[in-house]
Write a structure and sequence with these properties.
With 215 residues, the protein is α+β, with helices and mostly antiparallel strands. 31% of the residues lie in helices and 37% in strands. The longest helix is centred in the last third of the chain and has 29 residues.
Length: 215
C-alpha cells in the first residue's frame, strides 16, 4: 500500500512538470559607434633582422602600442622580381583613436614609399571598429530588455497552453558583429555600413536563449 502511495506521488509530480521546460530565443540589433581605429601591418625583412629591430622602427615613427601578432618566412612575392632569398613576414597590429586614423595612414604611407632599415616592404590596412569595452557596455545595456522580452514571450506561450510559467532554469548568449566602415591600403575605398546602422557604426546582434520552468 505504501509503495502504491509513493508511485502515485511521483506520478503526480511528473504530471505537474511539463517536459524539460520552455525555451525562448530573443535578439537585439545594436549600432555601436566606433571608438578605435585598428591597424594591421605586414612588413618584410631579411632573415637577420630581429623582432625588436622591427618594433623599434615603428616606435621611432611615433607608433607606440605596436604588437607582433604573426611571424612567417618565405619568398617575398610583393617585390618584383622576386628575391632569391626568403624573407620574414611580420604581422603587426596597433590601435589609435578614430580621429588619428588619417595621420597614422600618412606615416605608414611614408614608410611604404621609403622602407626604413631593416624593413624591405610594407603593406597595411585600417578599420574603424568598436572596442571590446564598447561592445561589453552595449551588451550590458541590452541584457535586461532581452530577459524581459524572453519572459514576455514565454508567458504568452505558457498561457496559451494553459500552463504556469516558472523561474529561469538556464540562459545562453551569443553575439554577431556586422561590418562597419573600413579604409586602408588593401581596400579601394570605404565600405558602406549595414543598412539601418549609423554612419561608421558596427552592427552587433545579441542573442539570448532563456529556459523557463513550467507547470
Amino acid at each position: 500500500m505504501r509503495l502504491l502511495s509513493l508511485v502515485f506521488v511521483f506520478a503526480s509530480a511528473a504530471a505537474a512538470q511539463v517536459g524539460d521546460g520552455l525555451v525562448t530565443l530573443v535578439t537585439r540589433n545594436v549600432s555601436i559607434a566606433p571608438d578605435q581605429a585598428e591597424f594591421l601591418v605586414v612588413a618584410t625583412t631579411g632573415l637577420d633582422a630581429s623582432q625588436s629591430d622591427v618594433l623599434q622602427v615603428f616606435r621611432k615613427a611615433g607608433i607606440q602600442n605596436v604588437a607582433i601578432v604573426a611571424v612567417a618566412a618565405g619568398p617575398n612575392t610583393i617585390q618584383y622580381p622576386v628575391p632569391a632569398a626568403s624573407q620574414v613576414y611580420y604581422g603587426i597590429s596597433f590601435t589609435t583613436a578614430p580621429d588619428a586614423l588619417k595621420e597614422f595612414v600618412k606615416r605608414l604611407d611614408s614608410m611604404k614609399a621609403e622602407p626604413p632599415e631593416p624593413i624591405t616592404t610594407l603593406q597595411s590596412s585600417a578599420v574603424l571598429s568598436a572596442s571590446p569595452a564598447a561592445v561589453e557596455a552595449a551588451h550590458q545595456s541590452v541584457l535586461p530588455s532581452l530577459l524581459n522580452e524572453a519572459r514576455s514571450k514565454a508567458q504568452a506561450l505558457a498561457q496559451a497552453a494553459g500552463l504556469k510559467l516558472g523561474a529561469i532554469q538556464g540562459l545562453s548568449e551569443s553575439s554577431y558583429a556586422g561590418q562597419g566602415i573600413s579604409t586602408g591600403y588593401f581596400l579601394t575605398g570605404a565600405i558602406s555600413p549595414p543598412f539601418g546602422s549609423a554612419p561608421g557604426a558596427t552592427q552587433y546582434t545579441f542573442y539570448a536563449s532563456v529556459k523557463f520552468g513550467v507547470q
